[in-house]
Each structure stands twice: as C-alpha cells, then as structure tokens.
Specification:
By secondary structure, the chain is mostly helical. The protein has four helices and no strands. It has one domain. Helices cover 87% and strands 0% of the residues. Helix 2 packs antiparallel against helix 3 and helix 2 crosses helix 4. The longest helix is centred in the middle third of the chain and has 29 residues. InterPro entries: Phage_lambda_Nu1_terminase-ssu (IPR010906).
Length: 104
C-alpha cells in the first residue's frame, strides 16, 4: 500500500513537471488565459460589427433601408451570440474534457 502511494505521488509529480515544462515552453496556456483572450477578440469583432451598417450605407448609398435593416438584425443576432461567449467557454471546455476522458 505504501509503495502504491509512492508510485502515485511520483506519477503525479511527473505529470505536474510535464505540465510546468509545457507551459514554460509555451506549448500550452491556462484555460483562463484562453477564455480571456477569446473574450477580448469577441469584443473587437463586436465593435467592427457595430459600425458595419453605417459603413455599408456610406460605401453603397444605393442600398435600400430594408437591406440595411436585415443586416442590422443579423448583426444583432451575432452580437448577442458573441456576448455570451465568456460564460459559454468554461462549459465548452468541460464538454471537451468529458469527450477526451470518455475516449481514453
């Protein structure tokens, strides 16, 4: 029993060291960083999408109001989807690990 615990501790120690080395080599990043980064990118994309109807109207004055209204509605849907990304990502991460664990 004592030997098994020592083996488990050694195994866990090796895994911890491997993770630390991969992080130091920049092969992996903490999930919190990935979530933060994706949230920032989503905010930048949302800012671009916010200006798109005005840009389209300025560059294509022949566009009818109904076309711009449709564009604005679809952009609103995309913004709403993106705004929930920060809360959705941890759930997706859990789903990913569940799939990985079940495949092993």
């Amino acid at each position: 029993m004592f030997r098994r615990r020592a083996i488990d501790r050694n195994h866990q120690s090796r895994i911890g060291l491997q993770q630390k080395n991969e992080l130091a080599a920049r092969k992996v990043v903490p999930s919190e960083f990935a979530i933060f980064t994706l949230f920032k990118i989503a905010a930048e994309i949302a800012a671009i999408l916010d200006t798109l109807p005005l840009t389209m109207k300025r560059k294509h004055p022949d566009l009818e109001t109904r076309h711009l209204d449709t564009l604005m509605r679809e952009l609103a849907r995309a913004r709403n989807q993106a705004s929930g990304l920060d809360s959705l990502l941890p759930e997706l991460l859990d789903d990913y690990f569940d799939i990985i664990d079940s495949a092993a």
